[in-house]
Specification:
- The protein is α/β, with parallel strands linked by helices.
- The protein has helices spanning about 20-35, 70-80, 105-115, 145-165, 180-200, 210-215, 245-260, and strands at about 60-65, 85-90, 120-125, 135, 140, 170-175, 205, 225, 230-235.
- The protein is built from seven helices and nine strands; from the N terminus they run αβαβαβββαβαβαββα.
- The longest helix has 20 residues, at about 145-165.
Length: about 260
């Protein structure tokens, strides 16, 4: 799971504004200045609802690594005007489940469950997890039985934390085909673990993206064919991530899948 300049005309003052009116104008101006300030990379959380305000019927949280950065922004854009829906996200660039020494994903997910209390969660992670992995004093080489077992345990842990947090629907996004052949083979191991673990948990659904982004699943394509027969570029130049159009396509697919759930 983001203003054009306006010319100002100075009308002739017929009288001096009253002190109360001047105070109101200053408050409004201050509010507009905050609203129009350019956002930084870090996003501040939206203020809590006022007392008595109805809670959102759908509370959607998108969590992931760099593959989810544009996708989360596209999801927020698609859902921003949907009544009864609140959307938040957390993206940690370059941080997956294989490097628990760099980022504590279980701790972060538990915090999200306790604070935002989502009832729908979208997970898109693992694009950089094809690497060696430490577990205690053991070092596992990618693709070995030990690595697969430990990675499955970590995936299972995240899924269970989300389920225990009261989430009705979890959508775990499969990794798309990538341009590099060896990495593509590596990611198939990771997505296979995702699919297997999701199938064993009620309310957890695996979304295969290979058919969405490639006419021949298993083979990388930078384009998809639109309904009008024209090609649409959907991948970034690195042959791995999505571009804006690809992120929007995946976001729309995610929303359609979530809408199938009660």
């Amino acid at each position: 799971m983001p203003c054009a300049s306006q010319s100002q005309v100075r009308p002739r003052a017929l009288h001096q504004p009253r002190p109360a009116a001047r105070a109101v104008a200053l408050v409004v101006a201050a509010g507009l200045a905050l609203t129009l300030s350019p956002p930084g990379r870090a996003q501040t959380a939206a203020p809590p609802p006022s007392p008595g305000a109805p809670a959102a019927e759908q509370r959607i949280f998108i969590v992931g690594d760099s593959l989810g950065e544009l996708v989360s922004a596209a999801l927020k854009k698609e859902l921003r005007n949907r009544a009864g829906t609140a959307v938040e996200s957390f993206i940690s660039l370059g941080s997956g489940l294989a490097r628990s020494d760099l980022f504590d994903w279980p701790k972060k997910v538990r915090a999200v469950m306790a604070t935002f209390k989502p009832n729908r969660v979208v997970v898109i992670i693992g694009g950089a997890d094809n690497q060696k992995m430490m577990s205690g004093s053991e070092l596992f080489t990618f693709g070995t039985t030990g690595w697969n077992t430990e990675y499955a345990r970590r995936v299972r842990e995240i899924m269970d934390i989300i389920r225990e947090g009261g989430v009705k629907t979890m959508l775990w996004i499969g990794l798309p085909d990538v341009r590099d052949p060896q990495m593509n083979r590596d990611l198939k191991i990771i997505t296979g673990i995702f699919a297997t673990q999701a199938a064993a948990r009620p309310g957890c659904h695996y979304l295969d993206t290979t058919r969405l982004f490639s006419a021949t699943p298993g083979q990388y394509s930078a384009y998809v064919i639109k309904q009008d027969g024209m090609p649409l570029s959907v991948r970034s130049t690195d042959g791995k991530h999505f571009n804006s159009a690809g992120a929007e396509l995946l976001a729309q697919t995610i929303i359609a899948r979530l809408d199938q759930e009660p």
